[in-house]
Amino acid sequence: MASWDGNKNQWGAQPNYDANYQSVYQPGPTPQYGQPAYPEPSGPPPAEYGGDYKSPYEGDRFKPKKKVNDIFFLIFFILQFAGFVVLSAISISEWIKLGGLGGGVGGGNGKTGSSITLNYHTVYLLLLTTAVALFFSTLYLILIRAFTKIVMHITLVLTIALNIGIAIYYWITKYWSGAIIFTIIAILSVLAYWGYRSRIPLASLLLQVVMDVAKHHKSVYVVAFLALILQAALSVWFTFTTIATYTKWTPGNPSCSTGTSCSSGKVAGLIFYETFSFLWTSQVVANVALATMAGGPFGSWYYFGPKEQGNMPKHPTLSAFVRASTLSLGSIAFGSLIVTILELIKMLLSIARNNANAEGHPVEACLALCAECFIGCIEGLVQYFNRYAYIEIALYGKSYLNAAKDTWGLFMDRGIDALVNDSLVNMTLTWGAYSVGLLSSLFAYVYLRATHPAYNVDGQYTAPVILFSFLIGLQCALTLGSAIEAGVSTIFVGLGEDPQVLAIRAPELFGLIASTYPQVVQGVQRV
């Protein structure tokens, strides 16, 4: 284990953890962070810590076996991505040959390009939408750090207001099935508010600690921004490909007169495949970034101490990225595929619900909505659990199933499931991502209304353009938020394995967790 020198404490004194909390991560001899409930040991943990202490390299941690895990899913992922590349090349080459059907930036009063389908005007619109998403994603992260408690309170209030607003809208529009379900959700969210509100101090302190650690490990934000840029580029590529697909295979386009088989069914099938590929690839990019940060700066900080103490391995972030993008890529693709399939099922149920509602079948619409909510809950649980499995993969190089099994065992053994479920961090970041997605789609809608492209004279392409814009904003914000999620989740996993280490890294946070969730720090004697 790293040196347990009590004089090398990196946390500055702060009597309160509120919205005015300042950076507390200061390498070298400084006063302790807060007034911890547990004094910092001056040497290796003594026997009364319950024998929970483990070496940083325990169980091949940070030194996984050089073995490619889940190779079937690795091959499947590579093949589907290769298929997307080929399809994109074919459709975009034809689209370029046809001049993109015209269009451009700005208003044209219905004269911006062809009136048949999407064109360059849409490309410029979604490029601008990507820039808007990048801006709002960064701004939200800055606001979280500056006003942690306030943002969390606002998040709770907005979540309740959104549920109430949706319920009211459905009652007004006489969409009875949706109105009943969302009324129940709204009532439950109001009742849950008081329970969540009492847990804001722990969640806000946790967020602040993680962001302060990231501040002194610049590689966290380097990885996050590189992943964000890659996600933005992937979103732009997906945008070009879908527009080119519409252009090449929509009946009535110039390419159909050259022998190309065109049909609405073919367009729907290709768009479905492209959406599947985009969602899966996007998930993999975000999760590789998460594994890189968890197995690199955050994991090394927790188990070895801050880099200024000199015990941290050399280039931990680079080493973690190499492991995540090679030996463990199949395992990450496996977990990401499960979430992607659930997301696609939810999208199909949403389409079925809208069609049933439009055709005046309220029973079918209600059943579809219930199924959609059920799949959404399962998807959320899988995403939640996967994050911790990816950390096990990042630290130990396990296969996905072994990582999932060990993660579940770790949660049940330490009772850490209660702490994770009570954390508001994920809600705060997820709400921010949805907010960025909504702002991005609002920008796209306003742009369409202001520029009047020829292909959208009757508004037939407003919905898909807004949907694409929402996906772009959502994915960009989720990728940037993964930097914080990686740190929070790594601390949770570390708590399950070596809880006493947190008493040295962040004493006040450890004391608050110990007083709120004593089962999480079992084996650590109270002094």
Automatic annotation (TrEMBL):
Main location: membrane
Protein name: Protein PNS1
Biased composition (Low complexity): 25-37
Name of the gene: PNS1
Annotated region described as Disordered, given as residue ranges: 1-50
Compositionally biased intervals (Pro residues): 38-47
Topology of this chain in the membrane: Multi-pass membrane protein
Keywords: Membrane, Transmembrane, Transmembrane helix
GO molecular function: transmembrane transporter activity
Function per UniProt: Probably involved in transport through the plasma membrane.
PANTHER family in the cross-refs: CHOLINE TRANSPORTER-LIKE (SLC FAMILY 44), PROTEIN PNS1
Compositionally biased region (Polar residues): 1-24
Localization per Swiss-Prot or TrEMBL: Cell membrane; Membrane
GO cellular component: plasma membrane
Similarity field: Belongs to the CTL (choline transporter-like) family.
Transmembrane region(s): 71-92, 123-143, 150-172, 178-196, 220-240, 284-304, 324-345, 429-448, 460-484
Lineage of producing organism: Eukaryota, Fungi, Dikarya, Basidiomycota, Agaricomycotina
